[in-house]
Amino acid sequence: MKKILILIITISFFAVLSKATATINEYDEIAKSDKVGVTIYAKKLNGLYIDFKIDFQGSILSKPYWINTTSPTWSPDYL
Questions:
Q1: Strand-pair partners of 62
Q2: Nearest to 28 by CA among 13, 47, 14, 12
Q3: Could you give the C-alpha distances from 62 to 1, 42, 48, 55, in angstroms and in order?
Q4: SS3 25
Q5: Under a CB-based contact definition with an 8 Å cutoff, are residues 12 and 19 in contact?
């Protein structure tokens, strides 16, 4: 029982740390949907968004090779 409790605490600790990594200052929030729990972050560099991070219900998915223009015409749609 003690081992299970330690495992649950450890997993919870890493889940909190992984969520904080996408909200660091150099990332901009590009799109967000509270309805399904998705937020998209990216770095802005020379008129492009690069190094996307997707927060899906608390899990962070990194897409470092995605690139998109910062123009609002081509920004991701809100769900």
A1: 53
A2: 47
A3: 34, 10, 17, 9
A4: coil
A5: no
Interatomic CA distance for residues 41 and 50, integer angstroms: 9
* Distance of alpha carbon 27 from alpha carbon 65, whole angstroms: 15
In Å, how far from its chain's centre is CA 70?
17
Digit-coded pLDDT (tens) for 18-41: 544 445 567 888 888 888 889 889
Strand order in the sheet with 27-33: 27-33, 38-45, 48-56, 59-69
Instruction: Look up residue 73 and give its amino acid.
Output: T
pTM above 0.70, yes or no: no
Strand partners of residue 39: 32, 55
Beta-carbon contacts of 35 under 8 Å, excluding residues fewer than 6 positions away, are: 79
Nearest to 43, CA basis, from 60, 19, 65, 58: 65
